[in-house]
Amino acid sequence: MKKMFLMAAAALVMFSCNKEEGKTAASAGFKTAYVDIQKISEDYEEFKDLESKLKIKQEELGRGLAQKAQQWKLDYAEAQQLSASKGPQWSQLKGQELQKREQDIAAEQQTLGKQMQDEVLAQNDSVSKKIKKHIEAYGKKNGYDYIYSTSDVSSIIYAKDGYNITDQILKELNDNYKSTRPAEPAKEEKKK
């Protein structure tokens, strides 16, 4: 009972100290804001371009693999039709060959999947670092003491809308990216 009372008293003292610290921080004029990282990841042009490029690359890499898989299916169907007329020894050898090709296709698919995953992670990490540096520079330039982030796993449960600087950060990021992004070819050149 004494321990519980002491713990409650200690908690009360800590709470009152934190309350006083909060008053001091507020009176000192700390400038804080937060950024919605989820919104930035959805609306940042560089992320969108990166996603498009990676999707195109995945389709290109997958095209060759899909052709191999389709050819394997055709060969398998043909082997099933010929197995009765060619005999059990031929069927067994052909089955081993087809099984080996199927395993090779599966291994290639796994390798390509890992390669794409590694590339996506590396690209996302690079862009995330760029965003973080930009937010840090924005905070210094605009005199913020703290800039918090919010996303699906958020440490901010509530904040006034006035503290949300996501749109300003996003606009600057997109403006900076557009100024460094190579120009897209004209529509007429794309048709060629």
UniProtKB/TrEMBL annotation:
GO terms for cellular component: cytosol
Gene Ontology molecular-function annotations: unfolded protein binding
Biological processes annotated in GO: protein stabilization
Gene3D superfamilies: Skp domain
The entry's keywords: Signal
Compositionally biased spans, kind Polar residues: 83-94
Region: Disordered, residue numbers: 83-102
Record-stated family: Belongs to the Skp family.
Protein's name in the database: Outer membrane chaperone Skp
